[in-house]
């Protein structure tokens, strides 16, 4: 059961990430995102985005805990969104089907590993000017979005209760759109929960 007060996720404090760049707990203010886009260039922008995506991973672990109460191998033997969308798990040598709760665990573990790897951190902290490369974060964000999609289409009560308390989905989508991290065709869940947006893609997606 969610608390009546605003839900506090782990890692909501800036100091938890030991980062000199300012991190937001919400992304509802467009001007705030525009300021970040204007202020950070090259390697600094990569580091800013990396820290923000890492925060989403930490926060999504909380949603995963709640989904664990309603999502199981028997209830969700495949990681799906709508009946036409099946997601394949990339945590294996060859992408394959996983039950939803295993997919979610694999996705979060994989994202954490990538975002905290020494190669990524040392590269981001090199201080060398370079052309910004957000493609690795696009892959991670696209896969993280699928957790919301599965929850929305298969565990709507849990999804709505969590969103009402945290606004995490709204913040996630606002950030993803501002930095062009997720294609609109991959965004199946309506932010206002009124209608499904985006193009449905048949077949397995990795």
Please characterize this protein's 3D structure.
- It holds the Pfam family Mob1_phocein.
- InterPro entries: MOB_kinase_act_fam, MOB_kinase_act_sf.
- The chain has helices at 30-39, 42-67, 100-116, 118-124, 135-154, 156-166, 168-178, and strands spanning 85-87, 203-205.
- It has one domain (26-205): MOB kinase activator (Butyryl-CoA Dehydrogenase, subunit A, domain 3).
- It contains 7 helices and 2 strands, in the order ααβαααααβ.
What features would you highlight for this structure?
MOB_kinase_act_sf, two-stranded parallel ribbon, MOB_kinase_act_fam, globular, Mob1/phocein family protein, 206 residues, mainly alpha, 2 strands
Can you describe this structure in just a few lines?
By secondary structure, the chain is mainly α. Helices cover 50% and strands 3% of the residues.
